[in-house]
Amino acid sequence: MVEGLVRCSANYAALTPITFLHRAAKIYRDRTSVIYGTLRFTWSQTLSRCLKLASALTQLGISHGHVVATLAPNIPAMQELHFAVPMAGGIICTLNTRHDPSMLSILIQHSEAKIIFVDHQFIDIARQAFALLVQNKLQPPILVLIPEHSTTQSTPDSQEYEYETLLAGGKDEYAPMPPKTEYDPISINYTSGTTSRPKGVVYSHRGAYLNALATSSIHGMASNPVYLWTVPMFHCNGWCLIWGLAALGGTNVCLRQVLPEQIFAAIALHHVTHMGGAPTVLNMIVNSTHRKPLPHKVEIMTGGAPPPPSILSKIEELGFNVSHLYGLTETYGPATSCVWKPEWDSLPLEERFKLKARQGVEHYGLEEVDVRDSKTMKSVPNDGVTMGEIMFRGNTVMSGYLKDAKATEEAFSGGWFRSGDLAVKHEDGYLELKDRLKDIVISGGENVSTVEVETVLYRHPAVLEASVVARPDDHWGQTVCAFVKIKEGLEVSSKEIIDFCRDRLPHYMAPRTVVFEDIPKTSTGKIQKFILREKAKAMGSLS
Q1: Pathway involvement (predicted)?
Q2: Burial class of residue 452 in the structure, from the number of CB atoms within 10 Å of its CB (0-12 exposed, 13-18 middle, 19+ buried)
Q3: Among 97-111, 215-229, 529-543, which stretch is predicted with the lowest mean pLDDT?
Q4: Sign of the CA dihedral 509, 510, 514, 517?
């Protein structure tokens, strides 16, 4: 035992991303923190507003462990609440703005939110959810209405509060409540519901602190980045970048709606340096009639399903530099990134984009990521062929699922967090995602990676969007079913799509069914394959 050591206030403080705001207000006090239309705040103003808001929350009874929910798009109030709620000792629960009143009422009840901040755009949905709670003899939370800054529309009801009025009633000299330990919850993020009813994923102050720094790093952010909010702030707390931008004194450019014309306009007007988005957002940009070469290089992070190389090529032609990352709600968003190697610059273009579509290696805030056999827990060989389940462990893995000990135990069985995603490991240790465990198609005893089929489909010049699922089959067990959305003004037949795939894939991997229709997505751009699986199942056997 080493003698003479002590842990005290001089050498230890619980890690919390709230400290980033205090630092930003000190070092970058006059630098712009938020831009939203004509609205501007500096970092010193943001700190003052967050302190007053936190004070107001305590006046409404919020203290350690109380949940405060939000239902809002990417607006300044969302940025402020990410600091003010934990400053008051609370836990922020950012709800998906696409939830209907029924799901919203369920999540409000499950989270036990004491207060919910609702943007004027979603006030009717919130009030309908409240009515459902009352019908079930449950007490709704306090509602705080967030009006549009530029209008006086949407006044609160008599029993509701208004955001700016509430904030103005807080005290400037408020002393924030530090977490009792750095493992205290800072946020609850409900999963996107791409597979089932959302689970409440709990983040800690420590994990949020580390992931905020790690995500900023893998995004290549230096001091004073200008970040365009195309990733929903409610999704994994904006990949933890709401906190990360404060650490760097960056500028938050808020967009209420993610539209190509607004993206290009904001990039030029505010000299945006960084942004993010799912592959579907990249697809929307490259197929937009508003697309045009950028006035300067913009770093764009993408995650979710592996982006097809064809989309990567087109987005970079416009002037974006794409970084590919991978993670889940349970890993605070980004967990791995495809760290680029200089020697890859000399490779042929198509090979470079294939490499860029990999999920890569863990960031420095994570202890370890590996691809393992789900049953034996043995690590698969680095042969680029043998599939296993992606597993994580480290400080940026969730604390657990809210009120669901069974699901938490299952997710952590074997001492790792089990992602449910299938991948291979290449010789250099980089991961490449192949499929979700539940999405893999087993046809005639052969495993078909839906990701590989989708990559080929996106190479067809008429295909705008594509998603592949299994269709039950009496002879083969399952066959490949492709849901395809065609670009406006173009026509193509099922046979042409099937033949296109058969020319580029082993025949057992090519679709035997092609359905032309719009593809359902979550608000974060993830394709809802569980809906497509149900549609394919309802078709019955092809044989």
Answers
A1: Phytoalexin biosynthesis; 3,4',5-trihydroxystilbene biosynthesis; 3,4',5-trihydroxystilbene from trans-4-coumarate: step 1/2
A2: middle
A3: 529-543
A4: positive
Comparing CA positions, the residue from 265, 274, 311 lying closest to residue 292 is: 265
**N- to C-terminal Cα separation, the chain:** 72
CA distances in angstroms from 29 to 24, 46, 47, 420, listed in the order given = 6, 9, 9, 44
* Six token digits for residue 40: 């501007």
The CATH class of the 258-436 domain is alpha beta
Q: Which two tokens stand for residue 91?
A: 């836990």
pTM of the model as a whole: 0.85
pLDDT higher than 60, residue 440: yes
Q: What is the spatial distance between Cα 43 and Cα 385, in angstroms, rounded to a whole number?
A: 49
60 token code pair: 């409404």
For residue 445, what pLDDT band results from cuts at 50, 70 and 90?
low
CATH architecture of 37-205: 3-Layer(aba) Sandwich (3.40)
Residues 183/206, Cβ–Cβ less than 8 Å: yes
pLDDT digits (tens, 9 = 90+) for 246-287: 999 999 999 999 999 999 999 999 999 999 987 778 888 998
Rounded Cα distance between 23 and 43, Å, is: 9
Q: Determine the average pLDDT of the residues in 37-49.
A: 97
Q: How wide is the angle at C-alpha 303 spanned by C-alphas 438 and 259, nearest 5°?
A: 115
Tokens 């080929």 sit at which residue? 456
* Residue 192: per-residue pLDDT: 66
In CATH terms, are 258-436 and 441-539 the same topology? no
Strands 32-36 and 251-254: parallel
Cβ neighbours of residue 172 closer than 8 Å, sequence gap 6 or more: 48, 51, 52
Q: Which of 215, 199, 142, 209 is nearest to 179 (CA)?
A: 209
The superfamily CATH assigns to domain 441-539 is ANL, C-terminal domain (3.30.300.30)
Say yes or no to pLDDT of 156 above 70: no
Domain boundaries, the chain: 37-205, 258-436, 441-539
